[in-house]
Specification:
Layout: E1 3-7, H1 16-28, E2 34-39, H2 44-48, H3 60-69, H4 74-81, E3 83-85, E4 88-91, H5 96-114, H6 125-133, E5 139-144, H7 150-157, E6 161-167, H8 170-173, H9 176-189, E7 195-202, H10 209-222, H11 237-242, H12 249-252, H13 257-270
Parallel strand pairs: 1-5, 1-6, 2-4, 2-5, 6-7
Antiparallel strand pairs: 3-4
Helix pairs in contact: 1-13, 3-4, 3-5, 3-6
Length: 273
């Protein structure tokens, strides 16, 4: 049975898809079977892995529609949707996923107003898909958009753990309580076993006083309650470059500090098996 980890933050620009891609690549290098799920209608993770979202005829949106309307087609749909890149599998996303988020909202509103109950609750559609995939992988990582909507709630409700990337900047760190509050609400209502695996500092410029101060503040505010990953992800131009080549940092620039940081992060994640 696999471990499902959601990479989430209710704020943009914190390095969620970069973390999903490179943490997945680092775990796969340890001989684990890894699936990445792109849960963002912009398809950023799909693009980073070298695929064109518009060309993905069967995507996460397709599978969520099947889960709702034609569950008998879901097993075949999953086989058709999964893409392969080196030693990692990907469940891609494209703009069609934004329509799913709208549909889920309508379903939830209708159920609330009229007491109607569908076969699948709106918050558990992604979980239905993930549960069918658990036996095939050791780790499933879910990348999320920065919007605290039903799509993100679906990802959290389908997960065992959540990793929260935080850019080493005061304004980004200030958004952290909102994400933790969302996790608390999902845990209380939908997934009681959801665990915060840790906070990950990204885009870290270790030589600057600002980055050091943010790191110290986060460790002081949260470190006694929530794990803070030991090695921040160092800022590097290679981080911006590697996705343009459809390669992970570990393949594109294995000697850069950020690649080494993700390898160390993977070691921490694997140590909790």
């Amino acid at each position: 049975m696999s471990k499902v980890i959601c990479i989430a933050n209710a704020k943009g620009g914190t390095g969620k898809n970069t973390t999903t891609f490179n943490l997945g690549a680092a775990i796969a290098r340890k001989g684990k079977r890894v699936l990445l799920i792109d849960n963002d209608s912009q398809g950023s993770l799909t693009k980073a892995m070298g695929f064109t979202p518009l060309n993905c005829k069967v995507s996460l949106a397709t599978l969520m529609c099947q889960a709702l309307d034609s569950p008998e087609l879901l097993e075949l749909g999953i086989k058709q949707a999964i893409l392969h890149q080196n030693n990692i599998d990907l469940l891609p996303a494209n703009q069609k996923l934004s329509g799913i988020a709208t549909r889920l909202s309508v379903m939830q509103t209708t159920a609330s107003m009229f007491g109607e109950q569908d076969d699948i609750q709106p918050v558990y559609v992604l979980k239905t898909i993930v549960d069918m995939l658990r036996s095939q992988y050791d780790y499933i990582l879910i990348d999320c958009s920065p919007h605290p909507d039903l799509q993100m709630i679906n990802a959290l409700a389908a997960s065992d753990e959540v990793v929260i990337p935080v850019q080493a900047h005061y304004l980004d760190a200030e958004g952290l309580p909102d994400t933790l509050e969302l996790v608390r609400r999902v845990r209380a209502a939908y997934q009681p076993n959801l665990f915060v695996r840790g906070l990950l500092l990204t885009m870290y410029k270790g030589r600057t006083l600002l980055a050091k101060a943010v790191k110290e503040q986060i460790e002081e505010d949260y470190g006694t309650q929530i794990h803070v990953f030991a090695q921040p992800i160092d800022y590097s131009i290679r981080v911006a470059e590697h996705s343009a080549y459809g390669e992970s940092l570990l393949d594109y620039a294995p000697d850069c500090p950020a690649a080494k940081s993700y390898a160390m992060m993977a070691e921490e994640v694997l140590s909790h098996e």
